[in-house]
Request: fold
Amino acid sequence: MGSNVLDVELVILILSLGVVAALYSSVGHGGGSGYLAILSLSAFAMNDPGWLKQHAWSLNLIVAAISFYHFHSLGHHRSALTVPFVLASVPMAFIGGYLAVTGNAYDLLLSLILILAAMRLFTSKSEDYDTSIRPPSWKVILPWGAGIGLISGVVGIGGGILLSPLLMLRGWATPKMAAATSAAFIWVNSAAGLIGSASVNGILLDSELIILAIPMVIIGGLFGSKLGSASANQSIVRKILVAVLLLAAVKRLMDLVGF
Reply:
């Protein structure tokens, strides 16, 4: 009986990861915060933060690559915007992944990021952003890239959930340009964070989970990045994901205070 329950939970987990990949890839994201939320609501929640981060980054690498290919092939990528963000973020993401932030500190940071991600998904509409593009200078980009890179490495995300609104609200990119830059940013940050974490913790990946998850996130990533915001049901899925992110954040906070 217990084995059957675990099998059902694993199937639900894998399917949920695919849904997250589809939704996030539609806006050029890898899904790191969503994967962490799903894992935080499963039997894997009690695993070491390094374990959680490495799995989120590994799935990010796949989905962000698919997203970048799609948005780049449609001509939305601007190297002049992406390169300085990447150069600033990669070393900081490596350092963040190397840092051993565990216990209450990690639970608090992850909860805050999950809440921020939920707010971002709940409130964002592409028509809210200014379409007149004003590219920033390197001296403006570098501190932002470094800061987001460090947070990404510490928490276990790619940083797209933080970078996209910055690019659009500041008028530095259109939504689709932001999606292309975010996808590239997420990929390199996830790689740097994964290498940093592996250098101090070793490889912590669960081979069974990864083997089952990869096909689902590939399907989700292809579906989401192709359809993008044109998906008729995206608003419904978005609301469900907001609820999942908030539920995971509340669960982490309740564990933190001993409930």
Summary: The radius of gyration is 17 Å.
